């Protein structure tokens, strides 16, 4: 932790809590005492938690999996997947950033009760204090989840370890050589923080219309105007009880998974229940958004462009800010559309899309034609991936990826595809990059989508009760997957889904549906590892020459078995005497 705190001290030495360090005043350094009568200054500690969230952009760590490669030879995930992943060079690292954020959050939790959050209004000081503490607990839980996902693992003596649990602010006199807590202890700390967040926060920030709607906790103590002043809609997209439930569902799914469940008490039934607690807020399957497969796209421009400040579309539980830009398109459009074609989907991923009738392409009932491989496929293939002959961009130009066709062809120039495919998902195709008429369009990054929650429920429910079991809930894994596939455009009735009877077959389908629905959003890397599935599958591509399709490996994946779990940073292991994960 010492390396992290030294970095933190350099950013704001007033956070140390040491009077001598806080001097001299003639340098105009503000000290910790200044937060007590300056609510905005105090809130800055909390906001440091938000600004350090690594959620505001897409990482495209799919490039480190069998779903994608990059045409950029210096891409960190490409280097990582091809043999350059170590405890010194770790693009997946969360250690330093997360612990820096946790230090800020610990300070505000320790000091919040002393802050004069408001000087007017009935009970507003107490309500502001509740809100700030609830947000801090929720954010701390989220950072701990990110730490567990990236750094939890088995020690050489066969213990499943997490990271040091730190719930008090550290200063220059603190003991930095704290041991790693067990993975289970970290999970339980997350649950404790999330419970605290829910006890302090509203389900959503909204302006209530009547004093009768003031929660019992504050009823009779405050006014309608003052309640809305603290918990009103202007706070939308800050931590809420709804978001805390979403984080709990993610944590439980991780802990119940094959990579971790030997040493945790989290059951698949709990994971299903935690996901259902989110989904039931929107009416379960009836609340599934019809546009959940194209929430990002130009065909959904009306919804995206019309998003009011803080308002979520039906598909989204939590999101970042809406902003105008064209960087995603500039990075990923094919060369003939003035893009750099960076993320190249693999043949592996293309093959994972079933036929329109729902059968996998290897199934005898699918009707797959290897000489016409993109015909009659699951509609999501055309939505998410540019194949040979696809139309793309504001003018609907044809993109040809075959040999000798154009700069969009396989390996034609440095910005061409290496696999025979380009990424379409996440891009606004009403963006024009032509220098003669370049424009921008509105984008946003979802932090949690409801589709993720539906898939989490389906996975956990199937593992707990099989394809058709419901536990204490109103829907089964099969019900959820049926709704997702119907929404995607799979021909009804879905005979392939109906043919599945066992847990193992349903598991394979659920894992594949998760792969398709969440592709390019940063899930595949973590999913393969928590499932303990094959992480060394070579990334494949297709060479199209005179209508002949030749599939071959494009890039090998050089991972060892111990790499199902990520390393702790080398320097922190040395300085803090931490136990490293096995193999690193």
Description:
There is one protein chain. With 584 residues, this protein is mainly alpha-helical. The chain has 20 helices and 14 strands. Helices cover 38% and strands 8% of the residues. It has a two-stranded antiparallel sheet with strand order 1-6. β2 (153-154) and β3 (160-161) form a beta hairpin. It starts with a helix and ends in an 8-residue tail after the last helix. Keywords: Cell outer membrane, Membrane, Signal. Belongs to the SusD family.
Runs in which pLDDT lies below 50 for 5 or more consecutive residues are: 1-26
Instruction: Determine the fraction of residues in helical runs and give it as a percent range.
Output: 25-40%
Which structural class is indicated by helix and strand composition?
mainly alpha
Rounded to an integer, what's the Rg over CA atoms? 25 Å
Q: What about the largest sheet?
A: 2 strands, antiparallel
- Name given to the CATH architecture of one domain: Alpha Horseshoe
Q: Tell me the distance between the termini.
A: 19 Å
Q: Strand arrangement, largest sheet?
A: 1-6
The fraction of residues assigned to DSSP E strands is 5-15%
Kindly state the number of beta strands: 14
Write the layout of secondary structure elements.
Layout lengths: L1 H10 L7 H4 L16 H13 L16 E3 L5 H9 L10 H17 L12 H28 L1 E2 L5 E2 L21 H18 L23 H8 L9 H16 L11 H12 L21 H5 L10 E4 L3 E3 L1 H6 L10 E3 L1 H6 L26 H6 E2 L4 E2 L4 E2 L23 E2 L17 E3 L2 E4 H16 L11 H12 L6 H5 L3 H15 L6 H8 L7 E7 L2 E8 L14 H7 L8
Antiparallel strand pairs: 1-6, 2-3, 4-12, 5-11, 7-10, 8-9, 13-14
Organism: Niastella populi
Protein name: Glycan metabolism protein RagB
Keywords: Cell outer membrane, Membrane, Signal
């Amino acid at each position: 932790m010492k390396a992290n705190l030294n970095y933190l001290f350099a950013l704001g030495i007033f956070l140390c809590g040491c009077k001598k360090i806080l001097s001299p005043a003639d340098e105009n350094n503000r000290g910790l005492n200044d937060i007590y009568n300056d609510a905005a200054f105090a809130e800055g500690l909390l906001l440091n938690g938000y600004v350090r969230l690594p959620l505001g952009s897409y990482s495209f760590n799919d490039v480190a999996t069998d779903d994608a490669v990059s045409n950029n030879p210096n891409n960190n995930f490409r280097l990582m997947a091809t043999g350059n992943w170590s405890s010194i060079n770790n693009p997946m690292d969360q250690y330093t950033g997360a612990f820096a954020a946790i230090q800020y959050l610990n300070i505000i939790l320790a000091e919040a009760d002393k802050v004069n959050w408001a000087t007017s209004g009935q009970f507003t000081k107490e309500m502001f204090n509740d809100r700030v503490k609830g947000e801090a607990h929720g954010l701390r839980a989220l950072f701990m989840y990110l730490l567990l996902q990236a750094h939890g693992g088995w020690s050489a003596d066969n213990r499943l370890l997490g990271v040091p649990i730190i719930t008090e602010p550290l200063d220059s006199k603190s003991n930095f050589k704290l041991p790693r807590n067990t993975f289970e202890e970290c999970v339980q700390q997350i649950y404790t923080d999330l419970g605290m967040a829910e006890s302090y926060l509203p389900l959503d920030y909204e302006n209530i219309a009547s004093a009768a709607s003031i929660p019992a906790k504050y009823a009779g103590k405050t006014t309608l105007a003052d309640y809305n002043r603290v918990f009103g809609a202007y706070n939308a997209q800050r931590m809420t009880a709804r978001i805390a439930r979403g984080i709990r569902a993610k944590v439980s799914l991780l802990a119940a998974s094959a990579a971790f469940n030997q040493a945790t008490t989290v059951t698949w039934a709990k994971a299903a229940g935690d996901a259902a607690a989110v989904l039931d807020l929107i009416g379960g399957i009836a609340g599934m958004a019809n546009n959940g497969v194209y929430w990002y796209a130009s065909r959904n421009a009306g919804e995206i462009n019309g998003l009011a400040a803080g308002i979520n579309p039906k598909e989204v539980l939590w999101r970042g800010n809406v902003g105008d830009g064209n960087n995603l398109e500039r990075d990923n459009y094919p060369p003939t559309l003035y893009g750099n074609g960076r993320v190249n989907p693999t043949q592996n991923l293309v093959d994972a899309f079933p036929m329109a009738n729902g059968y996998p392409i290897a199934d005898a009932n699918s009707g797959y034609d290897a000489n016409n491989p993109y015909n009659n496929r699951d509609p999501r293939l055309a939505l998410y991936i540019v194949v040979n002959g696809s139309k793309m961009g504001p003018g609907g130009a044809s993109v040809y990826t075959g040999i000798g066709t154009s700069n969009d062809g396989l390996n034609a120039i440095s910005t061409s595809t290496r696999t025979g495919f380009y990424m379409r998902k996440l891009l606004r195709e009403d963006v024009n990059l032509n220098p003669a008429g370049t424009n921008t369009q509105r984008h946003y990054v979802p932090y949690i989508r409801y589709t993720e929650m539906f898939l989490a429920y389906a996975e956990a429910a199937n593992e707990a009760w099989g394809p058709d079991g419901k536990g204490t809930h109103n829907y089964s894994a099969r019900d959820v997957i049926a709704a997702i596939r119907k929404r995607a455009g799979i021909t009804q009735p879905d005979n392939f889904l109906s043919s599945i009877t066992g847990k193992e077959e349903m598991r394979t389908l659920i894992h594949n549906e998760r792969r398709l629905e969440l592709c390019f959003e940063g899930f595949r890397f973590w999913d393969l590892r928590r499932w303990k599935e094959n992480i060394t599958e070579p990334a494949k591509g297709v060479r199209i020459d005179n209508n002949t399709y030749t599939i071959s490996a494009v890039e090998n994946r050089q991972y060892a078995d111990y790499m199902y779990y990520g390393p702790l940073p080398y320097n922190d292991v040395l300085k803090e005497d931490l136990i490293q994960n096995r193999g690193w």
